[in-house]
């Protein structure tokens, strides 16, 4: 964690895959490996043979080719992922050596924190109305900061959310495991969160962490589908909580899940952080 913190402070990245929280939770699941290379830090996912674009500077396209070739000796078909747009622009030789592809399912959704608090305009009016309905139905609800003692309650609530929505799939099973790892490391990781509490029960929760000096990333967010407006309230209260410190909120990717995509688009993202990967071209 100190190694990650040092490099991410020196070379901050907006893509949520580079957050310490994700690297220490999802990375535990995928057995991420780390390599110090040319004064840079390389993060490697052996399950998917994915080499994260190095955290550092001073390397050119030929260096990146050699890096991929090195991994290919043991992990055939390794590819470079999370290639920044500015690096592609400034290093035109990259396209001579790599076939660059993009994936919309792995692009991050970024929103103005102020906009998520204000919810101004006709397109967001329904969100505001649902928050008002929740407040009328549950006027005594409280916003409670998460601490390590909440772990069992949050895991049970997330599992209940999954069952109530009849959601299945390998991603959601893995997400619950990542959430569990995050809660197990609560006092060590740079993460925070809030619970929407009604009558001493969880109505919704959100867990987030700093991404850069002016951006926070929402990692986990679950709500009680039986409480109308709870989804909108947790989004709103999270933005209110983060507003004094962060201008932007990264709500991660949609993973090409249609329901997730529609939910993220409904809040009118200000921009997307594109996901680019690169495979070596044949000689």
Q: What are its keywords?
A:
13 strands, 2 domains, Aminopeptidase, alpha+beta, 6-stranded mixed sheet
Number of helices: 11
Order of helices and strands: HHEEEHEHHEEHHEHHEEEHEHEE
Helical/strand content category:
alpha+beta
Q: Please state roughly what percent of the residues sit in beta strands, choosing from under 5%, 5-15%, 15-25%, 25-35%, 35-45% or over 45%.
A: 15-25%
Q: Based on Cα principal axes, name the global outline.
A: elongated
Compute the number of structural domains.
2
Biggest sheet: strand arrangement:
7-8-9-10-11-6-12
β-strand number: 13
Head-to-tail CA distance between termini: 39 Å
CATH architecture of the largest domain: 3-Layer(aba) Sandwich
CATH class descriptor name of the largest domain: Alpha Beta
Radius of gyration: 20 Å
Look at the structure and name the CATH superfamily of the largest domain.
Answer: Gcn5-related N-acetyltransferase (GNAT)
Could you give a short account of the major beta sheet? Answer: 7 strands, mixed
Structural write-up:
This protein has 283 residues and is of the alpha+beta class. The protein folds into two domains: 2-106 and 276-280, Aminopeptidase (3-Layer(aba) Sandwich), CATH 3.40.630.30; 108-273, Aminopeptidase. It is 39% helix and 25% strand. It is elongated and about 65 Å long. The two termini are 39 Å apart. The relative contact order is 0.19.
């Amino acid at each position: 964690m100190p190694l990650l913190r040092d490099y991410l402070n020196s070379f901050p990245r907006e893509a949520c895959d580079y957050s310490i929280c994700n690297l220490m939770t999802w990375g535990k699941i995928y057995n991420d490996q780390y390599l110090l290379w040319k004064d840079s830090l390389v993060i490697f996912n052996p399950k998917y043979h994915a080499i994260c674009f190095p955290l550092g500077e001073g390397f050119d396209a030929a260096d990146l080719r050699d890096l991929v070739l090195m991994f290919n000796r043991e992990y055939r078909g390794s590819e470079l992922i999370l290639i920044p747009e500015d690096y592609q622009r400034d290093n035109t030789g990259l396209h001579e050596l790599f076939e660059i592809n993009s994936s919309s399912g792995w692009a991050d959704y970024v929103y103005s924190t102020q906009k998520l608090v204000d919810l101004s305009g006709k397109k967001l009016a329904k969100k505001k109305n649902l928050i008002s309905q929740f407040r009328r139905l549950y006027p005594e609800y409280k916003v409670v900061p998460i601490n390590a003692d909440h772990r069992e309650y949050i895991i049970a609530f997330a599992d209940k959310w999954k069952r109530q929505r009849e959601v299945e799939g390998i991603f959601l099973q893995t997400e619950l495991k990542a959430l569990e790892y995050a809660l197990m490391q609560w006092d060590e990781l740079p993460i925070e969160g809030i619970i929407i509490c009604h009558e001493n029960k969880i109505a919704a929760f959100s867990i987030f962490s700093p991404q850069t000096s002016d951006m926070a990333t929402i990692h986990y967010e679950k709500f009680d589908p039986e409480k109308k407006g709870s989804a909108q309230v947790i989004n709103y209260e999270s933005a209110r909580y983060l507003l004094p410190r962060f201008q932007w909120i990264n709500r991660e990717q949609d993973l090409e899940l249609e329901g997730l995509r529609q939910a993220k688009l409904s809040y009118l993202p200000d921009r997307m952080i594109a996901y680019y990967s690169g495979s070596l071209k044949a000689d």
